[in-house]
Amino acid sequence: MASPCSSSTTASDRAPRVLFVTLGCAKNEVDTDRMRALMLAAGFEETLEAGDADVAIVNTCSFLASATEESVEATLSLAEERSEGVRACPIVMCGCVPSRYGDALSSELPEVAAFVRAEDEDGIVGVAREVLGLPDEGAAPACAGPLRTVEGASAFVKISEGCDRFCTFCAIPYIRGRYHSRPAEEIVSEVEALMAGGVREVVLIGQDTGVWGRDLGEGQTLATLLRRVAEAVRPHGGWVRVLYLQPEGMTDELVATIRDVPEVLPYIDIPIQHCSERVLRAMGRSGSTEELRALFSRLRTEIPGMVLRTTGMAGFPGETDEEADELYDFIAEQEFDYCSVFAYSQEEGTRAASMDGQVDEAVKLERTQRLVDLTEQLGFAATAAHVGERVQVIVDGVEEGEDGPELIGHAWFQAPDSDGAVHIPFGEAAVGDIVTVDLVDSFCYEMVGELVGEAE
After folding, report:
1. Domain identity same for 346 and 362
2. For residue 407, is it within any domain?
């Protein structure tokens, strides 16, 4: 944590400075970026140091109890440092925690000056001015183009908000509301602006990306959106990646689009959570081992060489030893390239929280660790299998390595901020360049490459 807010009160001869703290997933990163764009357009300046800030905005996560605890702890830590300074630096808590717990937070967290629910974040400028005691200047100034401030080679783009699945273990529908798609024109406009600003990969995200467009009218599907986004990135030689698909969303049209549109990467992220039909039904989900096996077999047949990412959950209420073994065996059989594993969390307000058969914590953790060990073994092997390939790599940054500076990038089979990176000896390339690289070694999920072509 940075040093406390400790300078004098906001000076009249400079712009007020804001510190952003973001917790949780990529969707929260996008929300913070939107608030940042609004604040900058309204005359605020961003600082990365708490000691220089006039106001701190904490964008919280509440997907799991542990995430809520982390969000509260980060806020209290910032408040404690603030209290040690010589001036007040009000804290504004945004996002999932205020959306989930609402008015009860005011008495529980008196250290926080204001709470902003996710759906109210576009009003962040007015809230910040109010807690700073600055005069109300009316509506925030309009921003030209999409509200983004992305610097770097990859950018997440939200295509929807909310969720209609109401899985019994998940609080997201209660936090983020019912599912609604962003209009295609708005998404494409944002992508065009990002590419013009130097981004080379857009990652489409949402709670349930596969059903995008179903609330927008006939003919609006994720596949049609992907083709439009692909047209927007094509002049820049860019990539399109989509995350958080559900098994039911893998339509023939979508599979064909991923297979046939060069800009759309053959990287498929399908969280299965489990494979046992009984456990899936208890989760409020559909499917079975046989159905999932058939789906992945079909995808591998129709999209040769694709990469598969999934998510598994251990210790759901009522999960038997045999069902835990069924999930373990299925993951081992499918040899997913990447697999995240979570222990079931008894989330307040969800149906699963009151189910009989809550699994003992020690058993839950043992099952989780067994899956983690397996998925790491499979993931490390899948990464090593790319050694010897010649691939395109997007340069994300420069870091100091053991042998001097090195370029850090990612290949098509590596989602940014998720799947490891490619380490390349420093050469004639800059952040945002797409370079040709020979992959010569791997370690865990990381790869070592050698430049063999000029930056594009």
Report:
1. yes
2. yes
Q: Is 372 domain-assigned?
A: yes
pLDDT in tens, 9-66: 444 568 899 999 988 887 888 888 889 989 988 899 998 888 888 999 999 888 778 8
Host domain of residue 192: 154-384
State residue 123 phi and psi, 5-degree precision.
-95, 20
Q: Are residues 193 and 327 in the same domain?
A: yes
Residue 12 and residue 90: Cα distance in Å, rounded?
18
Q: Determine contact, residues 247/295, Cβ cutoff 8 Å.
A: yes
Comparing CA positions, the residue from 59, 57, 40, 47 lying closest to residue 7 is 47
Residues 119 and 263 reside in one and the same domain: no
SS (H, E, C) the chain: CCCCCCCCCCCCCCCCEEEEEECCCHHHHHHHHHHHHHHHHCCCEECCCHHHCCEEEEEECCCCHHHHHHHHHHHHHHHHHHHCCCCCCCEEEEEHHHHHHHHHHHHHCCCCCEEEEHHHHHHHHHHHHHHHCCCCCCCCCCCCCCCCCCCCCEEEEECEECCCCCCCCCCHHHHHCCCEECCHHHHHHHHHHHHHCCCCEEEEECCCHHHCCCCCCCCCCHHHHHHHHHHHHHHHCCEEEECCCCHHHCCHHHHHHHHHCCCECCEEECCCECCCHHHHHHCCCCCCHHHHHHHHHHHHHHCCCCEEEEEEEECCCCCCHHHHHHHHHHHHHHCCCEEEEEECCCCCCCHHHHCCCCCCHHHHHHHHHHHHHHHHHHHHHHHHCCCCCEEEEEEEEEEEECCEEEEEEEECCCCCCCCCCEEEECCCCCCCCEEEEEEEEEECCEEEEEECCCCC
Same domain, 22 and 95: yes
Structure confidence by residue, pLDDT tens digits, 92-104: 999 889 988 887 8
**pLDDT digits 0-9 by tens, 110-121:** 889 899 998 888
What's the structural domain count of the chain? 3
Lowest mean pLDDT segment, chosen from 23-27, 179-183, 285-289, 389-393? 23-27
What local confidence, expressed as pLDDT, does residue 427 receive?
76
Where is the domain boundary, 336, 369, 384? Answer: 384
5 assigned to some structural domain: no
